[in-house]
Prior knowledge:
The protein is mostly helical. The chain has helices spanning 2-16, 28-57, 64-95, 116-146, 155-162, 166-192, 197-212, 220-233, 236-250, 258-280, 301-319. One of its GO terms (biological process) is proteolysis.
Amino acid sequence: MTNVTVGVDIKEEVNDLGVNGKGVGLSPRKAVGRSALFLLILMVATNFVGFICVGLLHGKNVGPDEYTKLTTALTMVVEVVVVAIVCWYCRWRACGKRREGGNLSAHPTHHDAMTIGRLLMLFAMLAAVMMLETASGELVQFGVHAAGSSAANPISSVSDLAQNTWYIWLFMCVVGPVCEELLFRGAILRTLRQYGEVFAVVTSSVLFALFHGNAFQLQVVLLGLLLGYVTCRYSIKYAIGLHVVNNVLASMLSDIPDLALWVVGGVCLVAALIAYYAYRGVQKSQWIPNAPHVYRAWLSPLFLILVVLMIVEIVLQLVM
């Protein structure tokens, strides 16, 4: 009875404030387009860093490792600045003196309480997702090589450097995950959840995968789905923690035997499914329902431009 009441209250509150097409201002398509614009700005800024590094190192006898180190250091600074500006902008548009009509991203979030059992369930889910990502990544690698391409995962070289360079490890395992969670599960998901939490989780996860711009990392959409679920059901702070743990473990995967990964991942997958169904019936909060035809928001021109650019970048990675 409590679950139904909470769900109805959420739906009524959201509808009263102008969602589902009844309000004016921030429509679903505009919100998705704005989210895509944030990523395009971040991508332009980080690519500009690459051009700066090429200019700084032009004519100097510098190897690829030194170039990667310099690029990573500058990218870390740029990403922090851009994400901070985006988060401030979203907060200003939702809560500032010139609050945008129809922008309900500051709408109260209904969270379930975190318990030890649920925390263990989330870690089991994370291990299962990492196993699925590893398996799908290997399938992509096999398919790429079977097609005659010699392309390799560009993140591999960064992971190798991270083991010997502290600031690359810091960016890969701490700064990167925190910034990405604040951007995707903070600014973007929080803006989109007013149109439906499932829609917000799926859309932010797709943007998360596109942002990586890497054929060998498209499976991170699975991680995005998990972190979006955690943010909506519990809190973004747990999503940040899981993302940090994921990247730390990913940086160590090369030192772990494949058999051990599959055994541990399989056990965790079974444990995660059991724990999820055990705790599913005791959730106190309900998902905000999706607005009608909300996925038509993916037809936003900026979102489509982002998709096309990422497809082009992935194709170039595979053929060059």
